[in-house]
Amino acid sequence: MRPPRAVVRDGGTWTLQTVLQRHGLGPVAGVDEAGRGASAGPLVVAAAVLRPADAKALDGLTDSKLLTPAARDHWYDRIRARALDHAVVVIPAADVDRRGVHVANIEGMRRAVAALSAVRPGYVLTDGFPVRGFGRPALAVPKGDRVAACIAAASVLAKVTRDRIMTALDAEHDRYGFAVHKGYSTPDHEAALRAHGPCPEHRFSFANVAAVAGREVPAGLVHNGALPEQEPDPGDPEDTVGAWEPLEIVTGGAGR
């Protein structure tokens, strides 16, 4: 027999979570990343599980890119206080170079969901493209950080965490302006890169960095999240989940 059909009516950014919860598929985790297109600094992936009754308390939460820095800080604190669970995975630039940003992103998403310890999600919502390997059902949501509150929460956690890392790196590598452009390839960043050459926090597998460093971009690395998902090869010991140890995982736990 087919499962009962779910009728989804537009109820704002909590619609998907509410429908899934009502059909016994919760708790629902949202997953998103920050820094995929940056040419310096880490890739940061976050997962968040919000309380079903918090729609009113978190009214106004949206895609981190649409929020001011002050608003992102506000929502970051509020999400950490109220979420049922959250986790953040920090993937250093060197590991992005080794794996390719798309594979690094997919693995980071899986690890962020696996790091949720206070609750076990029954369903996962991802932003934009499908991801397999969560060990539970998942759905890709177009413009998910503007459509689903749990994905928006993950986007805020990832963005604020990464921005703070880049601001700290600015103190160590003050010639590049990381605190301003956060490692993205702005004209000022490109000018500094050409003037001073790359630092260890740059992604040498990115074409602009490789060109300045006089290196060739390694073949086979994927640096476009819009490309089809590239699954790890289970026959290659360098391409398994367990082989990727350098990931730093910052777990959250239950909120208040």
TrEMBL record:
Bilayer-spanning residue ranges: none
Major localization class: cytoplasm
Domain of life: Bacteria
EC number from the UniProt entry: 3.1.26.4
Residues annotated to bind a divalent metal cation: D32, E33, D127
Keyword Cytoplasm attached: yes
Record note on cofactor: Manganese or magnesium. Binds 1 divalent metal ion per monomer in the absence of substrate. May bind a second metal ion after substrate binding.
Localization annotation: Cytoplasm
Composition bias, Acidic residues: 230-239
Keyword annotations from UniProtKB, A to Z: Cytoplasm, Endonuclease, Hydrolase, Manganese, Metal-binding, Nuclease
Pfam (any one): RNase_HII
Cited function: Endonuclease that specifically degrades the RNA of RNA-DNA hybrids.
Protein known as: Ribonuclease HII
Organism: Pseudonocardia tropica
Gene: rnhB
